[in-house]
Design a protein that fits this description.
Elements (H helix, E strand, L loop, with lengths): L10 E7 L6 E7 L6 E6 L10 E6 L9 E2 L6 E6 L4 E8 L3 E3 L2 E3 L18 E3 L1
Antiparallel strand pairs: 1-2, 2-7, 3-6, 4-5, 4-7, 8-9, 9-10
C-alpha cells in the first residue's frame, strides 16, 4: 500500500519467514512525519497470520500482546511511533501443549535484544 510523504499515517512494510502456519511475520513501521502518530492495525495485516494464534511483540518497547487470532474481528495491535521514528513488530505463532491438567503455550520470539530465541511461556489450568 502506498502512503504519501505528507500523509499523517504510518508506512508499513511486512514480510513472512518460515513455513506456512509455523513461521513468523515481521512488520517494519516508519513515521515519516515530525509528530508522533498512533494507529491500530488488525492482525490480518501481518503477512501469513491468516490461521492460528499469534502474539505480537514490539522491538522498541518489548511489550508482548495477548495471544490472538486473525479470525477474531477484535484482533488488533495498537502502536505509536515518535516523529521520524520506527519500530519492528513480530507476530509469532503460539503452540498449545497439554501437560497433565495444564496447557503450556510457548512462542519463540526472535529479535529480543541480544537473546535471539527467547520463549515466553504462559500456563493455564484446565
Amino acid at each position: 500500500m502506498y502512503i504519501g510523504y505528507e500523509e499523517e499515517r504510518l508506512c508499513k512494510v511486512g514480510a513472512y519467514n518460515g513455513q506456512a502456519g509455523t513461521g513468523s511475520s515481521f512488520m517494519g513501521i516508519f513515521n515519516c512525519r515530525p509528530n508522533p502518530i498512533k494507529e491500530v492495525i488488525p492482525l490480518s495485516e501481518f503477512p501469513g497470520t491468516e490461521n492460528g494464534e499469534y502474539v505480537v511483540r514490539s522491538h522498541n518497547s518489548g511489550e508482548i500482546s495477548e495471544a490472538m487470532s486473525a479470525q477474531d474481528g477484535g484482533a488488533v495491535v495498537g502502536m505509536e511511533v515518535a516523529g521520524f521514528g520506527s519500530d519492528v513488530f513480530c507476530a509469532c505463532p503460539v503452540n498449545i501443549v497439554e501437560l497433565e491438567h495444564r496447557y503450556l503455550c510457548p512462542s519463540v520470539l526472535s529479535i529480543c535484544s541480544t537473546r535471539p530465541n527467547m520463549s515466553p511461556l504462559s500456563i493455564m489450568d484446565n
